[in-house]
């Protein structure tokens, strides 16, 4: 079986392409997962094929990456509008990183919205590989009625519901065809000395030789050929499928590519797991592609026995099934298989770095509908994060509530639907509160005596403390300058412990940072003093001093790396400034052509707005990662509102 992925932006006709390719010679067999990855098995010229129809939203890029991990080649489906080329930028980035041989298909050519050469030029801004036209359209007025193959120099006229008719190259197309063919041959000659010599000698190379060269350079991932058509009318589908059949590499090439990318011995590589999902009453289903011989139910794969092998289209198990190299199959009761991963018989191997999904930008607290679901929710989210690497599961600081980081609102909605439909856990979501802190603006001194008399021994401790602001980022410090044993040495650690406890909550209701405490005097009692008494005196004394130290609210500031296509870079300074952030600088992204990386400092309270604004300004393409940098003072009405809201929330809970 040979396997390819069809990927590209939403609304470009990917599913229609898969449907038409699968129906060229018979009826295809289909299956789908809750994550939007559709699998179609079909036969073409007596060969078995599997098409992976990858989800289109940018929030599902992780599943697109995983599909490429199991694919011999891919078809990138794009719009015929030059201004929409930027929407393909994330997919070209993944294709380049994965080194997957790719055919670019410009779909919906029956809806011309610009010149084809402008579409290719716009896409070339995001591709290191040369995009080479293999066909040019035949036009009648504003309508595209056929195409001309640049290698065979044969022309076809589209016929609705029928195979295209072979025609002579129209005079109106001949000049453009000659120009495009010359450009194609010049590019191909860069990879073949024989062809270069033929062109220098002004000899016309044979079509068969040119097809062989184009097949080789695609298998070697040297260029990205460009084909055209309209899947909804069936136009260009046969030519696209023939290109895949003759030019896509075999599964052995995928095995070599994965072994090289992950530094694993090729002979040990048996399979690759590339997708997983949970089904009600069945559990975790893992999709696997065989890369070697000997796979069957019960054999060791990934360090444990392979569970029941199923037909991915109908879910039927058959212990006699022995997947051959290249076959795609489903397996249950194989929870030990991580997804995605490269699989040897004795252990899973981490997938290549390029499969790492974009950093999730949307943070939400999930609140279960009933108390009995609280523990179940935690366990279920852990399961789902194993099958969806675009999802990160954490706990909210302070409350321990379930915090999830999702790729965006669509991803979050799908997560909540899976929780409800598969695991019967209904949840609501809310925005987590930024983690604020407080400090003091001026030093103060306090004298605090703790005295308590009970039926037995009493409690006595007397401390004199000075409290001062520390420089930003230094945190809490403690020192002592007592003399003459007024506070015995064995009680000083208790004084420090009490001061630390006081830092847990300041007068504004938040944790206290960047404060120094010094014990400079005190008294003790030979009978009634104890560690507990001195810890209590220190804690109460520091609390009193903090209330006299002009408390200041501190907001978290995050260092963000924002990744966007260069065409959107002009708007980013304004976006960050509007969120009271600071742009630190930007560079070209050396790993992705046509992309920039901006570095900025952004308040924690603005990160949600940054994610929303960035999605809107970049048509869902831009994304950012973040790391805590420092705390910064916050004054005025904004600070007062945060303190009041925090106090209200505390009272309600």
UniProtKB/TrEMBL annotation:
Species assigned in the record: Rhizobium jaguaris
Upper lineage: Bacteria, Pseudomonadati, Pseudomonadota, Alphaproteobacteria, Hyphomicrobiales
Keyword Nucleotide-binding: yes
InterPro entries (UniProt xref): EFG_II, EFG_III/V, EFG_IV, EFG_V, EFG_V-like, P-loop_NTPase, Ribosomal_Su5_D2-typ_SF, Ribsml_uS5_D2-typ_fold_subgr
Annotated Elongation factor EFG domain residues: 552-642
One Gene Ontology biological process: ribosome disassembly
Keywords for the protein's UniProt record, in alphabetical order: Elongation factor, GTP-binding, Nucleotide-binding, Plasmid, Protein biosynthesis
Translation elongation factor EFG/EF2 domain sequence ranges: 433-550
Protein name: Elongation factor G
Keyword Protein biosynthesis: yes
Span of the signal peptide: none
Function: Catalyzes the GTP-dependent ribosomal translocation step during translation elongation. During this step, the ribosome changes from the pre-translocational (PRE) to the post-translocational (POST) state as the newly formed A-site-bound peptidyl-tRNA and P-site-bound deacylated tRNA move to the P and E sites, respectively. Catalyzes the coordinated movement of the two tRNA molecules, the mRNA and conformational changes in the ribosome.
MF terms (GO), sorted A to Z: GTP binding; GTPase activity; guanosine tetraphosphate binding; translation elongation factor activity
């Amino acid at each position: 079986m040979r396997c390819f992925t069809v990927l590209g932006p939403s609304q470009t006709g990917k599913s229609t392409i898969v449907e038409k390719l699968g129906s060229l010679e018979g009826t295809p067999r289909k299956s789908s997962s809750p994550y939007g990855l559709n699998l179609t098995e079909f036969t073409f010229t007596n060969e078995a094929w599997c098409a992976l129809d990858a989800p289109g939203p940018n929030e599902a890029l992780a599943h697109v990456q995983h599909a490429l991990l199991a694919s011999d080649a891919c078809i990138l489906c794009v719009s015929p509008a030059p201004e929409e080329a930027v929407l393909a930028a994330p997919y070209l980035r993944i294709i380049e990183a994965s080194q997957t041989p790719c055919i670019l298909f410009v779909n919906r050519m029956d809806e011309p919205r610009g010149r084809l050469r402008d579409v290719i030029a716009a896409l070339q801004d995001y591709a290191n590989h040369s995009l080479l036209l293999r066909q040019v359209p035949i036009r009648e007025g504003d309508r595209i009625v056929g195409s001309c193959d640049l290698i065979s120099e044969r022309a076809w006229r589209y016929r609705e519901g029928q195979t295209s008719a072979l025609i002579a190259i129209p005079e109106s197309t001949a000049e453009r065809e000659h120009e495009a063919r010359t450009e194609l041959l010049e590019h191909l000659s860069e990879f073949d000395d024989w062809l270069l010599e033929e062109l220098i000698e002004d000899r016309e190379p044979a079509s068969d030789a040119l097809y062989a060269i184009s097949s080789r350079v695609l298998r070697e991932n040297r260029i990205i050929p460009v084909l055209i058509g309209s899947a909804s009318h069936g136009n260009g589908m046969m030519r696209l499928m023939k290109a895949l059949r003759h030019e896509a590499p075999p599964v052995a090439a995928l095995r070599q590519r994965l072994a090289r990318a992950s530094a694993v011995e090729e002979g040990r590589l048996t399979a690759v797991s590339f997708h997983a999902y949970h089904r009600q009453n069945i559990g975790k289903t893992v999709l696997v592609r065989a890369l070697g011989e000997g796979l069957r139910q019960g054999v060791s794969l990934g360090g444990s026995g392979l569970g029941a092998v199923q037909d991915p289209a109908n879910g039927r198990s058959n212990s006699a099934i022995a997947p051959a190299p290249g076959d795609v199959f489903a397996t249950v009761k194989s929870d030990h298989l991580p997804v995605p991963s490269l699989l040897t018989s004795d252990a899973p191997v981490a997938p290549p770095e390029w499969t790492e999904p974009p950093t999730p930008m949307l943070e939400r607290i999930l609140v279960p509908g009933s108390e009995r679901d609280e523990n179940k929710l935690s366990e279920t989210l852990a399961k789902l994060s194993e099958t969806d690497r675009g999802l990160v599961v954490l706990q909210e600081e302070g409350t321990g509530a379930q915090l999830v980081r999702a790729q965006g609102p669509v991803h979050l909605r799908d997560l909540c639907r899976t929780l409800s439909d598969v695991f019967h856990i209904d949840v609501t979501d809310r925005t987590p509160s930024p983690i604020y802190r407080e400090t003091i603006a001026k030093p103060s001194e306090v004298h605090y005596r703790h005295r308590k008399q009970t039926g037995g021994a009493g409690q006595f401790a007397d401390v004199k403390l000075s409290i001062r602001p520390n420089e930003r980022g230094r945190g809490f410090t403690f020192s002592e300058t007592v003399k003459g044993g007024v506070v015995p040495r064995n009680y000083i650690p208790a004084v420090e412990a009490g001061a630390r406890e006081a830092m847990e909550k300041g007068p504004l209701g938040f944790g206290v940072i960047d404060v120094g405490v010094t014990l400079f005097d005190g008294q003790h009692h030979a009978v009634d003093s104890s560690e507990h008494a001195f810890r209590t005196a220190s804690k109460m004394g520091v609390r009193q001093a903090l209330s006299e130290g002009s408390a200041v609210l501190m907001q978290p500031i995050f260092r963000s790396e924002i990744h966007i296509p260069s065409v959107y870079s002009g708007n980013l300074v304004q976006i960050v400034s509007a969120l009271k952030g600071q742009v630190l600088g930007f560079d070209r992204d050396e790993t992705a052509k046509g992309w920039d990386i901006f570095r900025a400092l952004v308040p924690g309270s603005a990160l949600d707005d940054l994610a929303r604004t960035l999605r809107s300004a970049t048509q869902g393409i831009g994304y950012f990662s973040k790391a805590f940098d420092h705390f910064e003072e916050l004054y005025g009405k904004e600070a007062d509102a945060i303190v009041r809201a925090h106090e209200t929330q505390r009272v309600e809970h």
